# Entry
Amino acid sequence: CINQHMVVATSKSGQQVPFEAFQMEFGSRVRGIGHVIALMAPVHDPFYLTRVWCIYEMYTAIGENVKTSIIMPPKEVSQLRADLADRSKGIGEVWNNLSRVDVEHAQASVPADRDRILALVREGPGFEAFNASVVVRLKDWIVDSCEAYLQSVLGDSGSGLDDLSCLVICENVNKLLRWDGKYDRAADLLKQATERAVRSQSTQSAVHFRQLGVVRRMQRDFDGSMEAY
# Structure
């Protein structure tokens, strides 16, 4: 969406490009496109998040309120769903990797491009604010995606998943929602899955009601929390 070598060319000419000026130009190109698509693959270590230009593009799209779609190839979608259904592995690795976005460790095909973009970020928003903006968008994406998958499972009796598997998925999605501070949504999903927990009569059922108690406590519903426990 922009000539990535423009920064280097301008630098070589002796001109200094203020962050605001570069952000305005880059932003105008992103706005012109109107839709940024970010490919997250492999799911446990997305290549997109290792590239300076890709991270900067997402940061710009967020700042310009440009539609940003995050997608995965079918193989990675299957892997993510397998993680959600695996109680021993869970979703923690994916969440932690998305939380550790660090543009200072990202790379570019042209080293000079990387150096100049990092200088622009340093002189502009700073690395902490820059990284945090991208991380928030990534967390929203993974939470929304996993929640939507769980909703489809809970609402589809023909999904082929038994109650125990559904409860494990529910446990992992509930963790994501709690980690992201979305307690009301977490409580709603747990209530939707309660019938399965009662029917399952398994150790996973006990986990389910314990999670419901934790969420209600976070909502300061202490009577409801005790009831769930």
Notes: The beta strands are 35-39, 67-71. The chain has a mean pLDDT of 87. Residues 45 and 127 are 21 Å apart (CA to CA). Residues 127-154 form the longest helix (28 residues).
